[in-house]
Specification:
- This protein has 293 residues and is α/β, with parallel strands linked by helices.
- Helix 1 crosses helix 2 and helix 1 (3-15) packs across helix 4.
- The chain contains 10 helices and 12 strands.
- The radius of gyration is 32 Å and the shape is rod-shaped.
- Strands 4-3-5-12-6 form a 5-stranded mixed β-sheet, with helices on both faces.
- It folds into 3 domains: 3-86, Winged helix-like DNA-binding domain superfamily/Winged helix DNA-binding domain (Arc Repressor Mutant, subunit A); 91-160 and 268-289, 3-Layer(aba) Sandwich (D-Maltodextrin-Binding Protein, domain 2), CATH 3.40.190; 165-264, Periplasmic binding protein-like II (D-Maltodextrin-Binding Protein, domain 2), CATH 3.40.190.10.
């Protein structure tokens, strides 16, 4: 059985007239009749009742017509999706991000992309910078959002924005009003990112403390920025977080003091594979680069 047999069958089923069906198919009537007979022989079922006056579908023919129409609808859907996959506007798109990136930005990105690429299945992963770089090199993700420079011949990196730093503390436990009082914090305990999880970021935090004249007493570590802020809120220490976090935190129990005197920033970058020139990747990067911060 071939697709042409099914197309010929549907034409006759719609017209219920072999002459009209053959005209519609641009073939002569004898070959059309022969194709229908071959189909019936293969199915071992009569699909049409024929006489000199009219052509009618048998009960088997009515069932077959319904199923064949459904089959062609599926084939159309498959063809459309296959074409879109070939055009890089369907399939799966995987985005990795670090925990210190405000989540509403990611949500806005996904909403925008879903409008542009409705056939795409988007997946989000919260992944450390080092693991993102490895995953992108292995093509396990399509777009990464990281902090720190990238040294990989396989990766294209674009600066998204430069982020400053802010001290975060529990207002009821720490009495501090300005950046000038930061050196007083040398006696306090700190909550930091784990060194193995984000080595570059960890080193920057140590540099910040050194600028204000002390070495931090790190008693708690976490791999998630939101967990660090929660630990601070619970009174387990103070921390230094990206100012991006401070700008988007409205908790009245927590205070932030931006460190403006020190000339240290962290680069938040967008990373993609150098071999990736797909429409969806370009659209995602363009959206983020043009995002009003």
């Amino acid at each position: 059985m071939e697709l042409r047999h099914l197309k010929y069958f549907l034409a006759v089923a719609e017209e219920l007239n072999f002459t009209k069906a053959s005209e519609k198919l641009f073939i002569s009537q004898p070959p059309l009749s022969r194709q229908i007979m071959e189909l019936e022989e293969e199915l071992q079922a009569r699909l049409f009742n024929r006489n000199n006056k009219k052509v009618e579908l048998t009960e088997a023919g009515k069932y077959f017509e319904k199923e064949v129409k459904s089959l062609f609808q599926d084939l159309e859907r498959i063809s459309v999706k296959t074409k879109k996959i070939a055009e890089n506007v369907s399939g799966e798109f995987r985005i990795a991000y670090i925990s210190s990136i405000y989540s509403s930005v990611i949500s806005d990105l996904i909403k925008q992309l879903k409008e542009q690429f409705p056939y795409v299945n988007f997946k989000l992963f919260e992944v450390s910078t080092t693991k993102q770089i490895l995953a992108l090199e292995q093509r396990k993700i399509d777009l990464g959002i990281i902090r720190s420079p990238v040294k990989s011949p396989k990766i294209k990196s674009q600066l998204w924005f430069k982020d400053g730093f802010s001290v975060v503390y529990n207002k009821s436990l720490i009495q501090i009003k300005s950046e000038e009082e930061i050196p007083k914090l040398k006696e306090e305990t700190f909550v930091f990112f784990n060194k193995d999880y984000a080595p570059h970021y960890h080193e920057v935090l140590l540099e910040l403390c050194a600028f204000y004249g002390f070495e931090p007493k790190v008693v708690h570590e976490s791999n998630n920025i939101n967990s660090i802020v929660q630990l601070v809120k619970n009174g387990l220490g103070i921390s230094i977080v990206p100012s991006n976090i401070a700008k988007n935190n409205q908790d009245p129990e927590i205070g932030f003091i931006e460190l403006k005197k020190v000339n240290l920033f962290t680069d938040v970058s967008l990373i993609t594979s150098k071999e990736d020139d797909s429409k969806i990747t370009k659209s995602a990067v363009d959206f983020l680069l043009n995002f009003k911060r």
